[in-house]
Write a structure and sequence with these properties.
Iron complex transport system ATP-binding protein, 256 residues, globular, Rossmann fold, alpha/beta, translocase, ATP hydrolysis activity, ABC_transporter-like_CS, 4-stranded antiparallel β-sheet, 6-stranded mixed β-sheet
Length: 256
């Protein structure tokens, strides 16, 4: 079972400390949301977990330092959906999703039947199969976001790290995106996602990491983490809470 561990991870960009001594042990089968206000260090922490930015401390993937692992091994183990990715080449949607299979291909090899099945499966799950023949650069922002999620799913990696996967999506497709990530975790994968929607975090995630000023200020079950005191301290807001096992949250007022 895959395990991704951050041990006192710190990241400095320029002269600014963006992530400060964050430790967390993330396990297969968890849907972990990374929350926090703008500039809290969420995306930088996500990138540090993949070894994409220089960091202090250690990130361990199944007991091995990620900094020592071959990039292809990491790419087969962790599928990464970056934030706000720009498309420059006029590829068809199907060919773009097929790029998710690159970590599994040897040099100069061709896509196999198993690869094609994985591509078709990812497009079906993300509900973009009807877009297969469209040119990806001509898609709307929401359509592009769903196609890029399909590309990440096509890797069929045991870990999915998604940075702002709900950006540009309408409410129905935001729910679809959360349902997909929830299903991936229920299938035994580790899913780590950066986003801002407190209500969806409460409803779908098993666990939340909340960053503020680069520091981890809360880590735990959504109902234990998203309290009125935390929302006031970290976000400077008050909110209305629903009832039930996973109560909804509606931000109501700025406090500062």
């Amino acid at each position: 079972m895959v395990e991704l561990v951050a041990e006192q991870v710190s990241v400095t960009l320029g002269r600014r400390a963006v992530v400060r001594s964050v430790s967390a042990r993330l396990r297969a089968g968890e849907f972990v949301g990374i929350l926090g206000p703008n500039g809290a260090g969420k995306s930088t922490l996500a990138r540090a977990l993949l070894g994409l930015v220089p960091s202090e401390g250690a990130v361990m993937l199944d007991g091995e330092r990620i900094a020592t692992l071959p990039r292809k091994q990491i790419a087969r183990t962790i599928a990464y959906l970056p934030q706000g990715q720009t498309l420059h080449w006029p590829l068809s949607v199907e060919r773009l999703v097929a790029l998710g299979r690159l970590p599994h291909l040897a040099p100069y090899s061709r896509i196999s039947a198993a690869d094609r099945e994985a591509i078709a499966r990812a497009m079906r799950v993300a509900e973009v199969d009807a877009l297969a023949g469209r040119i990806a650069t001509e898609l709307s922002g929401g359509e592009r976001a769903r196609v890029l999620l399909a590309r990440a799913l096509a890797v069929e990696a045991p870990v999915l790290v998604a940075d702002e996967p709900l950006a540009s999506l309408d409410p129905a497709h935001q729910l679809q995106g959360m349902e997909i990530m929830r299903a991936e975790a229920d299938a035994g994968r580790l899913v780590v996602a950066v986003f801002h929607d407190l209500n969806l975090a409460m409803r779908f995630c098993d666990r939340l990491l909340v960053l503020d000023g680069g520091r981890l200020v809360a880590d735990g079950n959504p109902c234990d983490v998203l309290t009125p005191d935390l929302l006031a301290e970290v976000y400077g807001i008050s909110a209305m809470f629903g009832t039930g096992e996973r109560p909804g949250i509606v931000p109501m007022q700025r406090l500062r």
